[in-house]
Here is the input.
Amino acid sequence: MTRRDRSDSPPPAPEPLAAPVVDSHTHLNLHDRYLHGENVPDADALLAMAAGVGVPKVVQIGCDVEYARVSVEMARTRPAVVVGVAVHPNDAAHIHDHDGPAALDAAIDEIGVLAQDPVVRAVGETGLDYYRTAEGLHEAQQHAFRRHVAMAVELDKALVIHDRDSHDDVLALLDAVTVPERVVFHCFSGDEAMARHCAERGWFMSFAGPITYKANDGLRAALRAVPDELLLVETDAPYLTPVPERGRPNASYLMPHTVRAMAAERGVDEGALCTLLYDNAMRAFGAW
Here is the structure.
């Protein structure tokens, strides 16, 4: 996120969706003054705005120990919210580099305690991110990834995958270990061949604002290849804002733009797609 993404007024709400959908990946706690100036929306305002356009439920992701605790507390008093918790791969590399491998394991241990709370439906986002991480720290990310996968298996939670510039290693690691029944590739960024690879294994693929970006023809080809029963949608808010609001802070209430782009790309009715996406989220994360 850069300063050109900052706007002191929120984008307008799109027309409500034809039927409810679930934002399968958002960060309610990361909306701050850097993004919004003095007009920082709180979690309840964001949830109300989302519900107003047909997004009545969200999966809140806490991707370090502090934010995981905040996310669990948030969900305990908000029925619209369930949670995923993990040490994000970039944070895993940072902890290992600055505080050592024992500190990284201690952080993952704390996540393991939080993950036992009933409001936590997923372990994640975890995975690999080679975009900002030096090659010498890839092993630390892989170690953290394996531990999170094992945690999801032990607790029977969904596994939410972060994969940036690391497709081959993510797929190889998942194929080398036991994975939980439900695996979700958050903000899917692979090509059509990768989508088919994931589909063969029954893994969910969640799409966000980038499918609306002009240059992403390969991503749209991947979207078309995903079987109906494995398709999810998300915002990854406050990031990855869809067109026509790209460049401004994202939020769950902007997800209708992405859903409508998905419906057009797959050549399906908006209402039918909404129902499919909602039902898939209930299967991926459990009904709430």
